[in-house]
Specification:
The structure is a homotetramer.
Chain A (H helix, E strand, L loop, with lengths): L6 E3 H4 L15 E6 L4 H25 L1 H15 L8 E3 L13 H9 L16 E14 L2 E12 L4 E12 L5 E9 L5
């Protein structure tokens, strides 16, 4: 929140002004309101996504689907923007008539399976993932929105690494929460 | 441009105001300035992309690479945002260390090949494409930016259809031009 | 909320595409997510501001400052963006070292006075206003933000009309709430 | 332009990631595209506005209206957004039916007068201004747009200072140019 109420001294703010200042005590400082997302917030949101996936995976290992499913629902509610409209979500392993998951139900089915309406979903987050990391190639900052494109690497309990090409659009709300509006994930071509 | 200088009558603009108006002749109309991208502009940009691809393909068929390459360069210059910064571009058939194409050179190589720096590129636009169409699943409008996610279908001269899952972020500039900031394309999983 | 989940038929969405569609049942409709503010929402926000002012005025007339002050605080909390950062607020009758009111306290003092830290404030909303209406000259729509410039007319119980030149920047949040980020109000020059 | 192609090392970009990186040579750096306006750009735009005003004033003193008018037209063309739509402009000394200047003609008349369609305009920029400086109270950064609110001080050849309360909305285009979308200026209340 510090970012929101930054006060910068006159010396800095007026470095490019030649005039002296003696025109009113109200000018002792300028208040800055910055609603833009930052690269650091984007990186934290990616880490948060990875950590949430690992948490669902470990929760499933210890508590089964009855523990994993509500956790996944909570993660989707807080990390995606489904409550505001259709999210553009193309999961890595989804295909056919259910390639795209514009609804919360479709996202939940992809992550934890066990939904008869999505019979092909095995639950990507139920695998025994041990680490997850993002390597960005491009980050675009557009006000409260940011796009990232790069690879995400998932390592399972046997040390096998799965690499996916992944694009995210994140949006920052005025209360500081970061939500995913777009998520396109695909296996490498020929991989 | 009509969109930019729309003047709407008081009756419309003030439908929700209860007061009568007799307060100044300057109020005869309200000027509207709308910088947002519209769904129609997005659909036109997708059609434009498809048509440009078909044009490069037919130009190659009739004039060879010496005709196709400058056309492709011109298309990339006008349809993508490379002159302003790195574009997030993951082409369908790119992989390995050259999966992502944040530069204009990488985009050109993908579309028309014939670049020793990109030895795997055969030139996607050089194939004998005959039709190209987009089927959107989600469109998100965010001011001057829009995201589309869905499938694009390419049909070649033998009638073979290639389907790709495709995400675009378009941005509209104040002069009305629409540019691609993000382009993530992938073959269907298991397809 | 209807705006958020509009589904438009293929016929409309694909009017500009020449190809026929027989490529997958998932394409029965496109989901639209539109986060932009609309002219209608802007006009409603202006009316809401006027109505809130009249309500504070009538509440003061019937219940005194002890009733008017909490109402004004509530109005400021919901109609301005102070909880997110400094609002750019230059009230009509503020001057000197307290011309600008970047904090909630300064806004409250302006509307209902009775704050020893703002000794010049008489409470603009405590006057016996009977009507309030906006006449816009320019409306600019920039994604979730909108600017309006024009006049606002305040009529008191004696029928005296006060006209002010007024500029607002409104911002729409993803939950649909509209907040004022900028409010510059001034008496007409020479008036 | 440096801002557009910043490459930041992995060490910085991945400070918040725990995993080691050995997954592909393409990850040697991340490309950043940042289209947001910065506080520094805003301050430079304000200085530019002041300097342009002083230049029109001195040009008028040396070359008369025939020199000042084309210069003013050029300044308006490059510093305001009239070519894209109606600008929200309420000049300090404009009033009555010509309080607002949504067109380029109205802005030009305000700055240099000598337009029979705007008989009250004396030409604000034709006065013998010697210095001009802005003292900001609030700056709001919203992606490519920024709002500033504060005072601007104009000093003439006799050393008389005129203070005005001034609000600007600036917008940054992808080519880096900064344009004024909103300009509300007013004499201090009771001042």
């Amino acid at each position: 929140m510090k970012k929101f109420f930054a006060s910068i001294g006159l010396f800095v703010a007026f470095a490019s002004f030649s005039s002296s200042l003696s025109h009113g005590q109200e000018a002792s400082k300028v208040q800055i309101f910055d609603s833009n997302i930052t690269v650091d917030q984007v990186l934290k949101a990616q880490t948060g996504w990875c950590n949430a996936l690992l948490k669902i995976s470990s929760t499933y290992a210890s508590g089964g689907i009855n523990a994993a499913k509500p956790l996944a629902a909570q993660v989707i509610n807080s990390a995606y923007a489904y409550q505001y409209g259709p999210v553009a979500f193309k999961p890595t392993l989804a295909s056919g008539a259910q390639t795209f998951r514009p609804t919360k139900e479709g996202a939940l089915a992809y992550f934890v399976g066990n939904d008869p309406n999505y019979p092909s979903d095995k639950g990507f987050a139920l695998k025994d993932w041990r680490s997850c990391s993002a390597v960005n190639q491009v980050i675009q900052i557009n006000g409260p929105s940011a796009t990232t494109m790069g690879d995400v690497f998932f390592t399972d309990s046997k040390g096998v690494v799965t690499k996916v090409d992944k694009t995210w659009n994140f949006v920052r709300e005025n209360d500081g929460s970061i939500r995913i509006m777009l998520h396109h994930s695909s296996l490498p071509f020929g991989g």
